[in-house]
Amino acid sequence: MNFSLYIAKRYLFSKSSNNTINIITIIATIGVIVGTMALFVVLSGFSGLRSFSLSYVNLFDPEIQITASKGKSFHVNDDFLNLLKNNPDIAEFTKVIEERAFFEYNKKTEIAYIKAIDTNYLYVNKMDTTIVMGGWVDTDPFPVAVIGAQIANKLSVGVYSFLEPLKIYVPKPQKGYSTSLKKAFSEVHVQPSGIFQLTSDIDSKYVFIPLHLGQKLLNFKENEITAVEVKLTEGTSPKNAANNLKEVLGDSYTVKTRTELNAALHKMLNTENLMSYLIFTLVVIISLFNVIGAIIMMIIDKKSNIKTLHNIGCTLDQIKKIFVLQGFLLSAFGLFVGLLIGIILVGLQLQFHLFKITASLAYPVELNMSNIIIVTATILTLGYLAAKIASSKISDSLVR
Question: What's the whole-model pTM score?
Answer without folding.
Answer: 0.86
